[in-house]
């Protein structure tokens, strides 16, 4: 049970999670400063941490250097500012004055004003088990320029050393896990692209350099935002490390004033004591309990037409794919790009969201009915935030895109970004999406976004920079409205693969498309990075044709299935051309997936062996009395002994039966010695093992 208490004597708030504690206080100048974050302590124990005297001051540092709860620019605070404001008369420094606080269940709000100017700052803390969600709210009675408004600053304990874990990437190679010693000074992870980005993802984990998958203290911070963002780690020579972050980017200023509040997105923090594995499981549990809208559902096995047809879409072709998919056990059929306007390639048609009558002479309804008649749900690809200059929409509304006067409009993939911060653009998008879903009985939308912002101007608007925040907010509002008005609608978020994966979008999307790269070996790494924070129940994974269209690598179909079955299984190939033996294998694999799906989608993930070039990669999911183990060996080596695979997360007192072989194993043996894998011979050998606890 999570509890928040206030110790008035020490002016200290203590937030007690399931197994961790977070505490902050006001110093004698009313500045909110950090006290503690780590293993669980009682409020009275936290009382012992209040300094009795002002810390030693070397004359060149603020006494609370690096301890600010929201490191604000002003006075002798030289830490990188998390809050930076400019008042109307040019004054920049903020002086905190504490006003009040309110505790409502697991939500704490601490209210401040500036000592002179009519600016109010509310610091929000909401406990979600051991995750502390934090955000900042600014309101003002006169206009204030906000140069930077982070959601929170997280202050880490003093460690002898600090190590950062994070992901980097690029298109078709997203979420590559990196672990590196934290540099001294300021390190910035960011996106300036108006989307979360393929290149970095808004989370970072910090440990003292000794944590392993199974042991050690790990601190994590993750931002729930799908536009531009920054996370700055600052490591000082005084032995401190902080992580501060939020939305925005350098040079983009927010304006706060009467009727114009600024509320930042949530920057969540999590302390765990069981290594990187426990940290990931705690993030996954948080996503299921507090982020995803339908966590109790099981995501259906989907078929997506993109890799089969590209833009070469026809009603007959889609029907043939749907019939084959249904026969294989697919539950949701998704028609991808190419069904609308003049969209016969990527050069035209985006923005003209009417059915292409040459391709679908009677509209979409016959196809939707056919798919429903086959017992599947029907899904459709859309890219609402985009327009091709070669489109009727752009010819009618060239001013609807992000642009600056006297500047070229840079095209990427022959398209421009619509300015969703404009109410007329957002209303137009709502109109056609609402009609499309309502009139056709669409069960699922794949919401794509295939390029970052550029020339992000808004001529004629007094505060054009607000589009950086308001575009994302408008996308969120539209998704929220569609979901409220069409409660059965489910969404997949996509941005040319994994360009928009974060806790902000996961609150509105039931699943995400992590990468356009479905190559098995690349996917094992992408999935490894994705799963550090985000749950398997939201990770779409398709089996596609051989050789892979991105890497040209050939991999056995069984191996491809086993890799995709570690998430939300889908198919994406030319299944109408698959030979009988592949169809038989696919039917069997889909049936197996439907059996293990509750364990994969709702279970706890244990990464037993991380992806390695020559070794065995292995994952384990545990859900109630069921266990599923995936093992993948890329390359066989002559005479190389196979190591038993030590499992994790089991009660050693129990016994488990292997559903495939009937063999009974003691959990104690599986934990201490390991499961004999018996992988088939040859390269690309893989196996799925199902274990049931014996009653
Ligand atoms: C990018 C997506 O990632 C693909 O899956 C596909 O939907 C294409 N866009 C369609 O243009």
What keywords describe this structure?
TIM Barrel; 695 residues; globular; alpha+beta; 13 helices; 8-stranded parallel β-sheet; Beta-galactosidase, Chain A, domain 5; Immunoglobulin-like; 10-stranded antiparallel β-sheet; 37 strands; binds (2R,3S,4R,5S)-2-(hydroxymethyl)piperidine-3,4,5-triol
Describe the structure.
The chain is an alpha+beta fold. The protein folds into three domains: 3-291, Beta-galactosidase, Chain A, domain 5 (Distorted Sandwich), CATH 2.70.98.60; 302-602, TIM Barrel, CATH 3.20.20; 609-693, Golgi alpha-mannosidase II (Immunoglobulin-like, Sandwich). It is 21% helix and 29% strand. The protein is built from 13 helices and 37 strands. Strands 6, 7, 8, 9, 12, 13, 15, 16, 20 and 21 form a ten-stranded antiparallel beta sheet that branches. Strands 29-28-27-24-23-22-31-30 form an eight-stranded parallel beta sheet. A six-stranded antiparallel beta sheet has the order 32-33-34-37-35-36. Helix 7 runs parallel beside helix 8. It is globular and about 80 Å long. The two termini are 30 Å apart. The model has no long low-confidence stretch (mean pLDDT 96). Bound molecules: (2R,3S,4R,5S)-2-(hydroxymethyl)piperidine-3,4,5-triol. (2R,3S,4R,5S)-2-(hydroxymethyl)piperidine-3,4,5-triol is lined by residues 306, 336-337, 381, 448, 450, 494, 496-497, 513, 516.
